[in-house]
């Protein structure tokens, strides 16, 4: 081997070691921050300290909770911030004022990380003749949701009702936010200004996007019965590659036309790792009933051309990060949900964790076998111990991933008994609810709930 090749190989190994060190230090930092937050919550609470509690699925509620805290601190108020899963009735009752920023997941469900607290809500009832547990507490709720769902802001509404039933008094009416509606958020900021005694608090800044380049766009399902699905490759801005972790989200600022202003953001699971040198997205082109292109998917799959700039920022989605240890992993998804699973598999491969079971569903094997070359390679080298693909339209009777889970119930139980975690990525309607029902039947409600509370059952669905 030539000296040049030896040097190149040494550089590759050195870069890999640096990436491993960075990932380890980031995980340790996250653990330290979590421990510090718990320590702060357990510390004596000054009477005037205001608590900001959040329940988040993708990180958006956590971001808004941080902005809420900063606004209050700018008005001179002492503030603590905590995730809802760090709280219980005793901790809540130690505060005089609490602001809640609560996302709703799907049709009225709490975010996965807040499931344990939601269980406490259900169990904590006020016995006749006893004082409510939160009498004297003043609170407000910022409820985040999507009005396309019947149970719009459902968890935020339930939280508001529960707090009232526990004797707490609203500081002001609940604020419901539909898809990040700026007007509703400004209304919340108005109340924060009143609490802080300041009318000059600065407005929250709009997200700052970097300019990435659309380097490649490849059709993944020619002649498919479904909408065209593309694998997009985006190269980083001149400032360099930002860090992210498998499971994180790319937030895109789409445009109506080339060169037009950013209209609204859309979120997509990242299908690659930083060491791949690019962000890859798996995007299905969506159309409305009148045939018009979807705002985000239309921009990414049709309007933008190779070489165009794409407004993008990476947002952490800690709820869907891969386990740090080598426990078995069952990955379940359908359609473009393969994107998030693909990044997780890449991360597991890089870490040397090989006991991974992929269960993936689409329409037809002949046209919708996304990323099949990658999957075949991972199976042959042992990164994927097992792969099951389910194609719903390849037989007269529709068959989906939840049907396969039921058929393989013994194998699912065996993997779970060996410590496996289950990660689900894909469509909320149909797939995610069907998978959840199948897992409840296979594992039992109590066991599945315990897995969810312990972080062994995680979902990234849309």
Keywords:
37% helix; 3 domains; 6-stranded parallel beta sheet; 17 strands; Rossmann fold; globular; 462 residues; Elongation Factor Tu (Ef-tu), domain 3; 13 helices; alpha/beta; 6-stranded antiparallel beta sheet
Structure description:
Helix 5 (154-165) links the parallel strand 4 (138-145) and strand 5 (169-170). The protein has 3 domains: 46-196, 3-Layer(aba) Sandwich (Rossmann fold), CATH 3.40.50; 210-318, Translation factors (Elongation Factor Tu (Ef-tu), domain 3), CATH 2.40.30; 323-461, Rossmann fold. The termini are far apart. It has helices spanning 3-42, 60-74, 89-93, 115-123, 154-165, 182-196, 295-303, 338-351, 372-381, 401-407, 409-417, 428-443, 445-453; strands at residues 50-55, 79-83, 97-103, 138-145, 169-170, 175-178, 210-219, 229-235, 249-253, 266-269, 279-284, 309-315, 329-334, 356-362, 386-391, 421-426, 457-461. The chain has 462 residues and is α/β, with parallel strands linked by helices.
């Amino acid at each position: 081997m030539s000296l040049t090749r030896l040097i190149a190989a040494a550089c590759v190994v050195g870069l890999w070691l640096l990436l491993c060190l960075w990932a380890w230090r980031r995980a340790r930092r996250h653990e330290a921050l979590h421990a510090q937050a718990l320590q702060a919550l357990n510390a004596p609470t000054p009477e005037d300290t205001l608590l900001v509690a959040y329940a988040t699925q993708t990180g958006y509620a956590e971001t808004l909770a941080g902005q809420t805290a900063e606004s209050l601190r700018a008005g001179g108020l002492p503030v603590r911030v905590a995730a809802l899963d760090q709280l219980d009735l005793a901790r809540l009752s130690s505060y005089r004022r609490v602001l809640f920023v609560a996302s709703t997941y799907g049709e009225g469900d709490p975010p996965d990380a807040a499931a344990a607290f939601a269980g406490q809500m259900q169990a904590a009832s006020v016995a006749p003749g006893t004082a409510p547990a939160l009498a004297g507490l003043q609170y407000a709720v910022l409820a985040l949701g999507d009005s396309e769902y019947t149970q719009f802001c459902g968890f935020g509404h339930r939280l508001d009702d529960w707090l009232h039933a526990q004797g707490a008094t609203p500081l002001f009416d609940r604020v419901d936010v539909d898809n990040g509606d700026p007007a509703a958020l400004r209304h919340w900021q108005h109340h924060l200004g009143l609490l802080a005694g300041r009318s000059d608090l600065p407005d929250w800044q709009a997200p700052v996007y970097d300019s990435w380049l659309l380097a490649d766009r490849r059709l993944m399902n020619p002649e498919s019965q479904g909408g065209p699905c593309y694998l997009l490759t985006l190269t980083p801005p001149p400032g360099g590659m930002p860090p992210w972790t498998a499971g994180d989200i790319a937030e895109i600022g789409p445009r109506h036309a080339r060169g037009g202003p950013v209209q609204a953001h859309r979120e997509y699971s990242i299908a690659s790792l930083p060491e791949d040198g690019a962000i890859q997205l798996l995007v299905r082109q969506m159309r409305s009933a009148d045939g018009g292109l979807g705002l985000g998917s239309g921009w990414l799959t049709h309007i933008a051309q190779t070489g165009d700039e794409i407004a993008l920022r990476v947002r952490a989605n800690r709820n869907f990060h891969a386990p740090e240890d080598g426990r078995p992993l069952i990955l379940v998804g359908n359609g473009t949900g393969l994107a998030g699973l693909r990044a997780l598999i890449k991360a597991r491969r890089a870490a040397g964790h090989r006991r991974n079971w992929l269960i993936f569903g689409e329409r037809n094997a002949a046209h919708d076998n996304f990323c099949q070359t990658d999957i075949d390679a991972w199976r042959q080298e042992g990164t994927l111990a097992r792969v099951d693909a389910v194609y719903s339209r390849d037989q007269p009777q529709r068959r989906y991933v939840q049907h396969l889970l039921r058929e393989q119930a013994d194998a699912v139980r065996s993997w779970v008994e060996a410590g496996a975690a289950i990660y689900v990525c894909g469509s909320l309607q149909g797939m995610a609810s069907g998978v959840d029902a199948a897992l409840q039947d296979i594992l039992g409600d109590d066991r599945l709930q315990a897995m969810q509370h312990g972080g062994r059952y995680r979902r990234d669905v849309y």
